[in-house]
Design a protein that fits this description.
Layout (H helix, E strand, L loop, with lengths): L4 H6 L8 H20 L5 H8 L3 H29 L2 H18 L5 H27 L7 H30 L1 H6 L2 H12 L5 H6 L4 H10 L1 H22 L2 H8 L4 H29 L1 H21 L3 H29 L7 H13 L3 H12 L1 H22 L16
Length: about 400
């Protein structure tokens, strides 16, 4: 005879049936969020020409998106910790999808800039809610794998944006790139609607907003450590991804079509890295897995930045993203395990997005450095310093792998 559903929820080794929808909603939403962000990366030239501005002005909109993300993390994180994961997740998906749709109707550069900043609020609001909803719905022994799958939505969104740049852009123009996420948004909302509320949230629900603030304040040292960590991780990811298509076209004179295919290729490496390293972190530990991934990034930089042939550049980019996203694949589990139970949406989400805020100038810094050192050396100098700093931070930091999110005695 099969066990009752409440008993299945208590058994951490067996995923409760309805929780599959919760995990899927988090993964789908982060994939969509990343796709909506990365479409801009592939149309910098077209947007600059259409709005009659320099490329640096379009790059500024990317920085504006990143800088607005903490506001979304604060708003939606508090809502998710106070009122549950499911409804705030649905609200933030509806919000950022609407802003993305409007971006495709932008009439001028100021309007486009404002819309991309507003989009950043939604992008920042999703991760904390989606990560807590996904990982609280996953048995501890599968948490590393689920972490990799969730964070894998980011390179998958990048990959889908590259495919859209190759297929949609030539046929229907840049505006269609912003409209392509509407149907996936509807699917994500339907999946989230089927999701049960988190048992971990029910057990640790804070009694008021002041209780949320108090929990964050009591864990201020851990919060500051996570903000520093995520700032450096932002340097790593956005510093190796956002300008890389423009770098390939400008410094290596590779055609836009080939760049789109290269982006597809190296994002396959990113997906491989995030899922495999996330899963491996259950055996190797969170910090050790990240440091190994960072070492891989360091080794491959010469091929990634200075490859003399298209083949070498492609291999370098592929392996670089295995390492970059391999490190990132561990981050959702690592942050959620280090977070206080009562604020598992706000605490990691806000730390993540404050890191993004402090790292928002990454693209502008790298683009400015290329005038003095050349594009390849600008990327290299910036990333070598970032990787070495990250190795130190993770080597000296805390870890709580396998931490239980629920109290069995309170379940059912």
């Amino acid at each position: 005879m099969s066990a009752p559903a409440s008993e299945l929820q208590r058994d951490h080794s067996i995923p409760f049936k309805g929780n599959k929808y919760a995990a899927a909603a988090g993964i789908l939403g982060w994939t969509l969020d990343a796709f909506d962000f990365f479409v801009v990366v592939f149309i910098v030239d077209r947007l600059a020409a259409h709005f009659a501005v320099g490329k640096s002005a379009i790059i500024l909109t990317i920085s504006g998106t990143l800088a607005a993300r903490p506001l979304g993390a604060l708003l939606f994180g508090m809502l998710a910790d106070r009122f549950g994961r499911r409804r705030p997740l649905m609200a933030v998906v509806a919000y950022f999808s609407m802003i993305e749709l409007l971006s495709g109707f932008a009439l001028n550069y100021p309007m486009f800039l404002v819309l991309r900043i507003l989009y950043g609020i939604g992008m920042g609001g999703f991760w904390g809610v989606g990560a807590s909803m996904t990982l609280e719905s996953t048995p501890p022994r599968w948490r590393g794998f689920a972490s990799g799958m969730l964070q894998g939505g980011y390179p998958l969104g990048y990959l889908l944006a590259a495919i859209a740049a190759r297929i949609l852009l030539p046929l229907w123009g840049w505006r269609a790139m912003f409209w392509a996420g509407l149907l996936p948004a509807i699917v994500t909302l339907l999946v989230a609607k089927k999701s049960p509320e988190s048992e971990a949230w029910r057990q640790h629900r804070p009694s008021s907003l002041s209780a949320i603030y108090e929990s964050v304040w009591k864990n201020g040292k851990t919060f500051a450590y996570l903000v520093l960590t995520l700032t450096l991780m932002t340097f790593l990811s956005h510093g190796t991804q956002d300008l890389y298509p423009d770098f390939l076209k400008t410094a290596h004179h590779i055609s836009p079509n080939v760049v789109a295919y290269l982006a597809m290729f190296y994002n396959v490496g990113a997906l491989l890295g995030t899922i495999s390293v996330g899963h491996a972190s259950e055996r190797l530990g969170r910090r050790r897995s990240i440091v190994i991934s960072l070492a891989l990034c360091l080794v491959v930089i010469p091929s990634w930045a200075f490859g003399h042939t298209l083949t070498i550049l492609a291999i370098g980019a592929f392996v670089m993203q295995v390492g970059v996203q391999g490190a990132w694949g561990v981050i959702p589990a690592h942050l959620n395990e280090l977070s206080p139970d009562a604020v598992r949406s706000l605490f990691p989400g806000l730390a993540y997005q404050l890191g993004v805020l402090f790292g928002a100038a990454t693209n502008s810094i790298e683009y400015g450095l290329q005038y003095r050192f050349g594009y390849g050396w600008a990327l290299t100098i910036f990333e070598v310093c970032t990787i070495l700093a990250l190795m130190v931070v993770f080597a000296l930091g805390p870890e709580q792998k396998g931490k239980s999110f629920v109290d069995d005695s309170d379940s059912g």
